[in-house]
Amino acid sequence: MTRRVWIHAWRSRRAHLPALLAVATLCSLLPAASARATFTPATLMSGTAKLQFEQAEAPALSRDGRYVAFQGSLAGVTGVWRRDLASGAIEPVASAYDSSDPGLGAPAAELAAPDASAPSISASGRYVAFTTTADLEPEHALENGARVGEPAVDQGCPEVYVRDMDLPAGAPGAYTLASALQGGIGITYAGCQAPPSGFAVAGAQAALGVALSEDGHSVAFTVLSRSNLARGSGCAPATPLYECPAETPPSQVAVHDLQSGTTTLVTVTPAGAPVPAGGAFPSEASEQVSRGAVPQGTTGSTAAISADGSTVAWLGSDVGAQVPQAAAEIEEGTVHNQGEAAGGYEAEPLWRRIADGPSAVTRRLLAGAGLDMFYNRNEGFEVVRAGSFVDTSSRLPFVAPALSADGETVALIANAFPFAALTGVELSGNPPQSDAYVVHVSDDSSIAPEVLALTTTPDYDVLGTAGEGSVTNVALSPDGTRVAFDTGRERLVLAAGISLISPTAQSRTAQIYEANLALGTLQRASVTWDGAEPTNNAGLLSLGDGGKLAFASMARNLFYGDSLDTSQVYLAEELPSETPVAPQLVGVAPSEPGPAVEWRLNATVAAQRDGSVLVRVWAPGAGRLSVTATAQLPTPGARAKHNGKRSSRKSRRARTVPRPVHRAHPAHPAHAARARARRTRSGPRARLVTRAVAAAAMGVGAPSELSVPLRASAAYRAEIDSARGLYAIVHVALSASSERTLTAQIPVTFHRAPPSKGRR
Question: Rounded to 5 degrees, what are φ and ψ at 439?
Fold first, then answer.
């Protein structure tokens, strides 16, 4: 079912079903559609054949599912990385420089970008956009015949770059400045002071995962500082762009085309001028949202661009200046805000088809949903408390919208509630919970956007523990038919026509759900290898074609053998709908083998005080383990007697050792005489014979660590009790039918320790 067919089906269901909501709980599952799907177990993406990342997050999946870009730290080298899902190769996009291992990160110190964050990736995976304070292209472009470098006032400012992965990092053109003016000239910013951690609410920054078009040429970003993004009246026509004064108000969204070199201002008034109070969140009025810095590892942008580069969606601020017909509604909304003006403090999702040129109309995505987008308390200069973002207490307080490839479908998060709930709502100063919405926008501006409340908070007065928990981290597939989000709710209230086909979370940790709008199903995508609940929260998401889902999670049981508590990046895939659905309530063995164990034997031997030795063996797999201790012992040449009688012929043969024959070398005839003299003086010599003094054997069923005690027989007690002890070689062997036999030899001395003083 195509996206347009789904839209028609959605309208039909809405017209014929009087109830708009369907409640699904943990104990009662709604009837699912006849065709449904399930997810494969998660596969770790943030790891190589030798090393696993210390931390990884913010995945961006290419549309074809061949590559995934993410930010993380590998062997202490931080930055943005790209993994080839076909070969498993991981290479740095922009990262720190490691002088001890230059091949690990940046190729040179001057190309180091340790704070590179928020990757977005093109459809083929060739281009990756990211934000960094590093200057990766000192010579930006030609201006009046001269090379123009980064202005001095921009040092330390975050900026947006695009990396061409087909070129080596040190080659010309490998990095291109994307947050730029016409012709690729760097923007001049006013006031860039780096915070202790994270990015300052300054410079230019790109939203993670949604800032790059599918061809890698168009980049959407937010200019958070006062800048020269648009020429002001004080800039003479002949003045070079990089010398224009920073007169453009902060918090503006723009799109730069790397191929044509053009820059389009997106946040504009109907007259085409920059929004005076800042048209994007976080705005100048709401910079306190992060106390001067966005959280570490994130960026201060909510601007998303469609894959075809035609459309931009963002969290708008000062909405009345961009959508004049909304001014009256905004003023009504401020009645509930203790008289505070909403301009500059709200965060409402906006949409603009920039492909229509200057005549494009900015539209409000949730205008027809009956939501109070301007609820905020602003007590004591507090930050924005509601609008279209998640709880401000979270690490990522705002989430950018996600657009389909053609820009007509938008998935987003809003923590606003209907006006009808205002009379009874009691939030005790806490912001409302956030929910997931899917919006379809028509090219006809006279038709209001259609809003589907994918999840809904049922009752703000009586939430109950099962209904508490915001919906976070939304993602949308390029065809607009799949929506993924995170939540820790045990009770989900879904839109009509959407059926829950798997249990909700039972551990109150944020887990991943995917809604297949074409099938009308919602299911959990957080599949663990043993069927248990994930041990920790899920994180950021990215959807590709064909149901491929890249996500971050701190859970330790997504794949067999995982043990790290830090965030890692994983890949899961929705199976075709004709594939039978596996039970999700019963733990099953992992469909993929666990980590390969190297066929190597490790063994250690330790002498014990009682005269025995303890052999510790690491067996890498099933087989037969044998442990033997051998020693060289002297044997007398004379015949032995037992109890005064002659030994049997058989025992005599076993104990009698022929004397060695010493022949003189032909060139030295005196050797024989000297040998006869030595035998005469010392008498008959005893010969050393190698004997097995102790042995043990056992079967091994699986890779394991074993402890094998060895105790020599009583015949060797005199040697063990002597001062020198019994010196031996321990031979360890592991034989298996399908593998080569592994062996090890370790020397040891059997020795009984004398009793301690005062002990009888």
Answer: -125, 135
List, as one string, the DSSP characters of 13-60. HHHH-S--EEEE-SS-PPPPPSS---BPPPEE-SB-SS-B-SEEEEEE
Structure tokens belonging to residue 229: 């993004």
Do 298 and 289 meet the contact criterion of CB atoms below 8 Å apart? no
3-state SS of 177-200 is: ECCECHHHCECCEECCCCCCCCCE
**What's the CA gap between 577 and 381, in Å, rounded?**
52
Contact 613, 630 (CB under 8 A): no
Token pair belonging to 716: 């060797």
Position 386 scores a pLDDT of 57
pLDDT at 140 over 60: no
Query: In this predicted structure, what is the pLDDT of residue 157?
Result: 86
Predicted confidence (pLDDT) at residue 6 exceeds the cutoff of 60: no
- Give the mean pLDDT of 386-393: 58
Instruction: Say what percent of the chain tops pLDDT 90.
Output: 33
What is the distance between the terminal CA atoms of the chain, rounded to a whole angstrom?
90
Are 181 and 189 in contact, with CB atoms under 8 Å apart? no
Mean pLDDT to the nearest integer, 68-86: 94
Q: Which two tokens stand for residue 194?
A: 């780096």
Exposure on the CB side of residue 615, measured as CA atoms within 13 A: 30
Beta-carbon contacts of residue 709 (< 8 Å; ≥ 6 apart): 608, 612, 613, 614, 615, 696
Distance CA 696, CA 705 (A): 16
- Could you tell me which of 308, 289, 280 has the C-alpha nearest to residue 401? 280
Which residue, among 579, 578, 570, has the nearest Cα to 549 in the 3D structure? 570
Position 1 pLDDT exceeds 50: no
- Residue 96's pLDDT is what? 94
HSE-CB of 237 using CA atoms within 13 angstroms: 0
